[in-house]
């Protein structure tokens, strides 16, 4: 198996790059989706969140009130750290299990693990390659306004709340510039796949043990 860690700031083009790699044959794991799975009704994570932040974080149907919890932790660094201490280990365990399953099913698979908080959460899976998508702040804000309907002030606050690009670039093996056209981003993803396929074949040719 060849494992790619894909990260980048909000609205920096991660999904576009991931989709392109999937078109080439990669398996896509999305940390945001896994984070939703670990807090499903009845889960240990959801019980821990209710115990830590109060039953008011649950809707009447027993599901997590994401809006209320998000509003709390967005403005409270300590609360965000307490939430992350509950959710991140559960996501790490689930992602590790899914990666192992993909490897068992197809030892030649390319798995792209899309992790927005790869740096912040100190995700330590044995990545063969770490890819960072990077766009100028103005492009990120514009996308949040045009594609997700945020007002400009909120959009800028969302971008500013994340770590800077330089910290992500420090862990990157490859940086994909997503500040231009979709076609430019796609062409970089295509070139990345060629390199990954070459590296995967080289890895497969290495003697085991």
From TrEMBL:
GO molecular function terms listed in the Swiss-Prot or TrEMBL record: kinase activity
Transmembrane segments: none
Pathway: Cofactor biosynthesis; coenzyme A biosynthesis; CoA from (R)-pantothenate: step 5/5
Residues binding ATP, per UniProt: 11-16
Domain of life (superkingdom): Bacteria
Chief place where the protein resides: cytoplasm
The protein's Enzyme Commission number: 2.7.1.24
Location of the protein in the cell: Cytoplasm
Enzyme class: transferase
Residue numbers annotated as active site: 181
SUPFAM superfamilies assigned: P-loop containing nucleoside triphosphate hydrolases
Entry-linked PROSITE patterns: ASN_GLN_ASE_1 (PS00144), DPCK (PS51219)
HAMAP family: Dephospho_CoA_kinase (MF_00376)
Function: Catalyzes the phosphorylation of the 3'-hydroxyl group of dephosphocoenzyme A to form coenzyme A.
Family that this chain belongs to: Belongs to the asparaginase 1 family. Belongs to the CoaE family.
Name of the protein described by the UniProt record: Dephospho-CoA kinase
Gene field: coaE
């Amino acid at each position: 198996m060849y494992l790619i860690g894909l990260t980048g700031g909000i609205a920096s083009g991660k999904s576009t790059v991931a989709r392109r790699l999937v078109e080439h044959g990669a398996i896509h794991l999305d940390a945001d989706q896994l984070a939703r799975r670990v807090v499903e009704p009845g889960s240990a994570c959801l019980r821990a969140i209710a115990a830590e932040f109060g039953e008011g974080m649950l809707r009447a149907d027993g599901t997590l009130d994401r809006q209320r919890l998000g509003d709390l932790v967005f403005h409270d660094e300590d609360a965000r750290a307490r939430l992350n201490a509950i959710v991140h280990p559960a996501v790490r365990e689930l992602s590790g299990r899914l990666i192992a399953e993909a490897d068992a099913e197809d030892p030649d698979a390319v798995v792209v693990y899309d992790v927005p908080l790869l740096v912040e959460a100190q995700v330590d899976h044995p990545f063969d390659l770490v890819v960072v998508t990077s766009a100028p702040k103005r492009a990120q804000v514009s996308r949040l306004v045009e594609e997700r309907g945020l007002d400009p002030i909120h959009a800028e606050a969302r971008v500013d709340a994340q770590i800077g690009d330089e910290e992500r670039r420090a862990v990157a093996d490859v940086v994909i510039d997503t500040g231009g056209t979709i076609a430019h981003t796609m062409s970089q993803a295509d070139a990345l796949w060629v390199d990954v396929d070459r590296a995967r074949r080289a890895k497969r040719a290495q003697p085991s043990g």
